[in-house]
Design a protein that fits this description.
Number of helices: 7
Largest sheet: none
Structural class: mainly alpha
Shape: extended
Strand content: under 5%
Order of helices and strands: HHHHHHH
């Protein structure tokens, strides 16, 4: 009896017993559903409710006024003719034409050369020798004890 009230993992933690309705098997569930259907005066009540809700939603949508779109199109667009149709062959030949030509290759080579010279300039030292010597003199001056403030 006490095992029924105790948790399965530890005997120290009490646990409330589950009601028998929540521990039904599949056969118990089908039997109980059959009993509920026989006891209900209107067994098909929910499909009717769904149909009524669907009809009400459609009726609500039908009551909405359609927006007036005639005023949104400008007058010059109303009077404009249909666009002219273009033959497909010139478009296909333009698409099949080689995209890289001699002029694009020459332009690309010039751009590559300019980028390489720029990279060579940037790969040099960041601080030149004169600035580095001046910085070293500044550091050596501050190490002098006469320059440091006295506390």
């Amino acid at each position: 009896m006490s095992d029924f009230y105790l948790n399965k993992r530890s005997n120290q933690t009490p646990c409330l017993p589950l009601p028998r309705e929540r521990c039904m098997t599949v056969q118990d569930h089908s039997f109980r559903t059959r009993q509920m259907r026989q006891a209900s005066p209107t067994p098909h009540r929910f499909p009717v409710c769904r149909a009524v809700c669907a009809v009400l939603l459609c009726a609500l949508a039908a009551c909405e006024e359609f927006p007036e779109l005639d005023g949104t199109v400008p007058a010059h667009m109303k009077e404009a003719g249909f666009p002219t149709l273009v033959p497909v062959e010139p478009l296909v030949t333009a698409a099949r034409a080689p995209a890289i030509t001699e002029t694009t290759m020459a332009g690309m080579a010039a751009r590559v050369a300019a980028l390489r010279t720029r990279a060579a300039r940037l790969s040099g030292p960041v601080v030149d020798r004169a600035t580095k010597a001046r910085m070293a003199r500044g550091i050596s001056d501050t190490r002098d004890e006469s320059v440091l403030p006295k506390t």
